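Please decode residue identities from the backbone states below.
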């Protein structure tokens, strides 16, 4: 007997609410993680402070590594919710949820509503998608705009309605404003290979939709024009250095081997990894499509996944978040395959067994790691490791028993159990975030500085850029021996005096003319003070860091 429609709808709504709770409620519960969250929070904070929303600045110098849209989104969030961690992450989390919704809608249009609902859950409740969707980075907004663009394009294509291409071009323009030219290159490559493999040559002409092209320029052109007018060297730095040189060379020291992203796919899909492997089964919708419509959809999804994966695998600069846009097409394939399993009342490809095995292996590795890896107390991490393991294993185990009844309704309930278990698994990772918020955030250091610092004291950091300190303290930071990614802006007039080397800083530290709050890692202390004489008047230890004060003038006055 089938599950009644109203009951199905209530189950879908309940799982959707659960996903929303998992994504949004805990967003503000831990400090901004270094370095990315501090960076992408401080830039919009400085925009609000200065009133300049055209030229991005980080630590009060020009910063052109990324376009402007995420900064605008975060600035709007700060103005709505205050300058805090929740507001910093809200636009990214919203992008993740909207990306999952776009994935669900496209899957529903091709494979039916049930498959669409499953696709939304698989997307939102996959490990890597969730992880990148709940920290403030450009990658999730980019993933959302790519998903919206490619979904609108394919829907307009199969429905023969070019008006949907307006959403495609608008989304590509917004993607360009989020992370640059890859928002054009990736959709173009995906559509190109789809046309090649399906021989739908007419689509080339259809895609060149003049109203859509006009809309693209209306959205994308104004900011690039205004920032270039105010900063003549922007175009070279942004397009040549941060696009072509970053992609083709090792300029940012982010080189990894070609195969770097391959293991990230099954790991990033957890807890749905078993269903990913089941796609290789002869009974899967990927290998045995029912008709040409499904075959064409499979080609589109494979083109979507493969072009992104290969593009970033070839690049000389690799970071894990780059492949997040790979996950929506995989979620659609997995969801449509699960939908087939429900319809045929059979778990083909040993999907549940593989889910249980991979989940079990991961759980054992995670529990072992809590005792032999990292710097955190095992007794603090073990409860989170066990909760993650329970979420991984409960779903496949419950699904096996529930589906034993053999009815379609039993299989639908089994999939609902998988989704709920996946939500538990994902939610348990906030425990890891909580630990990282203590070990990889400058919030605690910043709180000490704000409590102890006097109004005339300059905050200084040696040997690295701690991005969160300017955000939390609302102060410009003197960076010693650490231009890093701020080198471009540091060499401009507004950077003068704020990026000294050790030889320039030490005389100021020893003098009575300027007072500092110096943040330095304990292991680096001997690199700055080679004679061992730190000459501080006050010292505070905070984990691996020292916070030193040189209040000699005031001490002498006393």
């Amino acid at each position: 007997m089938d599950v009644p429609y109203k009951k199905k709808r209530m189950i879908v709504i309940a799982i959707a609410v659960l996903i929303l709770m998992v994504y949004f409620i805990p967003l503000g519960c831990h400090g901004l993680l270094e370095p990315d969250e501090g960076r992408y929070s401080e830039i919009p904070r400085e925009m609000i402070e200065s009133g300049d929303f055209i030229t991005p600045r980080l630590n009060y110098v020009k910063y052109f590594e990324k376009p402007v849209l995420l900064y605008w989104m975060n600035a709007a969030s700060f103005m709505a919710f205050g300058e805090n961690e929740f507001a910093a992450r809200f636009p990214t989390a919203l992008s993740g949820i909207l990306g999952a919704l776009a994935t669900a809608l496209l899957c529903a249009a091709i494979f039916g509503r049930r498959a669409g609902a499953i696709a939304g859950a698989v997307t939102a409740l996959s490990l890597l998608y969730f992880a990148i969707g709940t920290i403030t980075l450009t990658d999730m907004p980019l993933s959302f705009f790519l998903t919206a663009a490619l979904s609108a394009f394919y829907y307009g294509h199969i429905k023969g309605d070019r008006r949907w291409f307006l959403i495609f071009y608008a989304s590509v323009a917004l993607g360009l404003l989020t992370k640059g030219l890859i928002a054009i290159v990736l959709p173009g490559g995906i559509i190109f290979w789809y046309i090649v493999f399906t021989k739908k040559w007419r689509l080339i002409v259809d895609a060149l939709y003049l109203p859509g092209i006009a809309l693209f320029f209306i959205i994308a052109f104004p900011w690039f024009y205004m920032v270039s007018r105010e900063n003549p060297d922007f175009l070279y730095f942004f397009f040549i250095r941060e696009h072509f040189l970053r992609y083709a060379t090792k300029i940012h020291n982010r080189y990894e081997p070609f195969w770097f992203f391959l293991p990230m796919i099954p790991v990033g899909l957890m807890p749905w990894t078993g269903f990913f492997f089941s796609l290789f089964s002869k009974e899967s919708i990927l290998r045995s499509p029912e008709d040409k419509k499904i075959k064409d959809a499979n080609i589109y999804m494979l083109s979507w996944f493969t072009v992104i994966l290969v593009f970033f695998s070839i690049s000389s600069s690799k970071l894990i978040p780059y492949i997040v846009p790979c996950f929506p097409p995989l979620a659609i394939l997995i969801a449509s395959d699960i939908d087939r399993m429900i319809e045929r009342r059979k778990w083909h490809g040993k999907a549940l067994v593989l889910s249980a095995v991979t989940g079990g292996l991961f759980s054992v590795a995670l529990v072992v790691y809590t005792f032999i890896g990292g710097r955190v107390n095992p007794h603090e991490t073990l409860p989170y490791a066990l909760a993650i393991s329970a979420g991984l294993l409960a779903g496949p185990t419950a699904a096996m028993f529930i589906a034993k009844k053999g009815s379609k309704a039993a299989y639908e309930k089994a999939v609902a159990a998988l989704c709920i278990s996946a939500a538990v698994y994902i939610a348990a990772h906030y425990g890891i975030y909580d630990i990282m918020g203590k070990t990889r955030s400058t919030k605690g250091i910043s709180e000490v500085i704000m409590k102890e610092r006097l109004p005339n004291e300059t905050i200084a950091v040696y040997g690295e850029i701690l991005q969160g300190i300017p955000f939390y303290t609302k102060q410009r930071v003197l960076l010693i021996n650490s231009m890093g990614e701020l080198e471009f802006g540091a060499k401009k007039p507004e950077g003068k005096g704020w990026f000294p080397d050790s030889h320039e800083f030490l005389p100021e530290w020893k003098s009575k003319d300027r007072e500092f709050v110096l943040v330095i890692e304990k292991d680096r202390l001997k690199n700055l003070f080679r004679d061992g004489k730190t000459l501080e008047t006050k010292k505070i230890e905070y984990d691996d860091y020292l916070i030193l004060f040189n209040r000699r003038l005031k001490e002498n006055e006393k």
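Observation: The CA atoms of residues 118 and 184 lie 29 Å apart.
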